[in-house]
Amino acid sequence: MNSQAFQNITNQIFPVVLDFLINYGWIFLVFILYNIFINYWITYQKKKFKSSLNFITLKIKIPREVETSYKVMEQVFSGLSVISSSPSRIDEITSGKVPLWISFEIAAKDSGIEFFIKTPVDFRKTIEALFYSHYPQAVIEETSDYTEEITTTLPNDYNSLWASEFTLSKDCVLPIKTYQFFEEKDEEKRLEPMAPLLEILSSLKEGEEIWLQFIIRGLTKDQAKQFQSEAKKKIDELFGKKETPKQSDLQIFFNSAVEVLNEFIASFPAALGLSGAPSNKKEEAKPTTFIMTPQVKENSEAIQRKISKVVFETVIRVVYFAPSAIFDKYGQSTAIKSYFSTFTVEGLNSFKDKGVKKPKTLIREIYKNWEADQLKELFENFKKRKIKDPTASKILEKNILSSEELATLYHFPLSTTVGAKISRVQTKTEAPPPNLPIIS
């Protein structure tokens, strides 16, 4: 096609397109503006909904005697499956409703270690019922938010700060090491998974503080469906099974037509009475022999174990701060990272420290406060108990932990734990006997 012919075609098409846009282009404009408006509206409604939530802080005084298995705390987390919800699109548009979350926290200073829960007030009775049914001697009290005691922004001229988030280093369907590993059944011994952390928290100097936060939120229906699907794919992958790619109706029709045509062409030699003609029939592929190794069996069972439990999307944050004169960033951060590394399972999963994002060299030179600003944001996110709105996209990249994994990370330490400066209930309280006489 020469340039003149192309020019003629362009001259004929352009007026038609222009006329179409003039007469019907407003439809596309309305559609685009509607989507922009509805997204801004939902964002506004969600912000309004979150600001209306009433959160309270509960302080848990641990029983003096804790000898029960970590499975007890797993039952507590399993019972919190009732907090899961899946707001519809209509709910998002009309009220901005989002699934709610609960934050399990540990706060330590030189005076001792304390356990807290930050929760919507609507979940208070559920939490108390779960804890009292499994830990009858525990005491749960509503208290002020300990994070509000720090009224200034950190870091500042007087106090230094280290903060980070810890996430799974591999696909979230792969489990970490859980309390099952720490229980030696043959010797009837229990190792304390939190022992390294308690040692760190119990050796703080005056002015030093470390806070840990485990925010949990149940999966939505779409997230749960996607999570289970990806877990099954991972198990099939371990056993060498390849997923058959899905074909469209057009692809199926085309493949069938090609197969019929090949058979028709292959029948010509026989119809002409020719012998010894090469056959176009493909040899059937022999199935590949799969050898079940102990490692494959163990890993597949570990994944199946995880997906059989109640799971939560989880945010893990740690902050450490102290007066600049005694601030020990390297020592404390290294110790905390080492603690999270104890849950590593080779071939399965582990935790990684996200830390602050280091910008490129040129940006670092221009923007001197990049590290301090990121630390401030992490500290504020801790205080606000911030968690992103749920989505089903990229489910494998999310931080999803089972009730068993959460119980390993957050539980009441055994009373046999040595050296831990934990605030415990000093007196044993029991209900009076039913036959106690009443003196009038």
Shape: globular
pLDDT < 50 runs, ≥5 residues:
none
Strands, total number = 11
Helix content: 40-55%
* Strand and helix order: HEHHEEHEEHEEHEHHHHEHEHHEH
Q: Largest beta sheet, briefly?
A: 9 strands, antiparallel
* Mean pLDDT level: 84
Describe this structure in words.
The structure is a single chain. This protein is an alpha+beta fold. Helices cover 42% and strands 16% of the residues. The chain contains 14 helices and eleven strands. α1 (3-52) crosses α3 (89-95), α2 crosses α14 and α7 runs antiparallel to α10 (294-307). The model has no long low-confidence stretch (mean pLDDT 84).
Please render the helix and strand layout as text.
Elements (H helix, E strand, L loop, with lengths): L2 H50 L2 E7 L9 H9 L9 H7 L6 E8 L2 E9 L3 H11 L4 E5 L15 E10 L10 H4 E2 L4 E2 L4 H7 L7 E10 L2 H18 L10 H18 L1 H4 L22 H14 L3 E13 L5 H13 L9 E3 L7 H6 L3 H15 L15 E3 H7 L31
Antiparallel strand pairs: 1-3, 1-4, 2-3, 2-8, 5-9, 5-10, 6-7, 8-9, 9-11
Helix pairs in contact: 1-3, 2-4, 2-14, 7-10
Summarize the structure.
With 440 residues, the protein is an alpha+beta fold. Helix content is 42%, strand content 16%. Strands 1, 2, 3, 4, 5, 8, 9, 10 and 11 form a 9-stranded antiparallel sheet that branches.
Feature tags:
nine-stranded antiparallel β-sheet, 440 residues
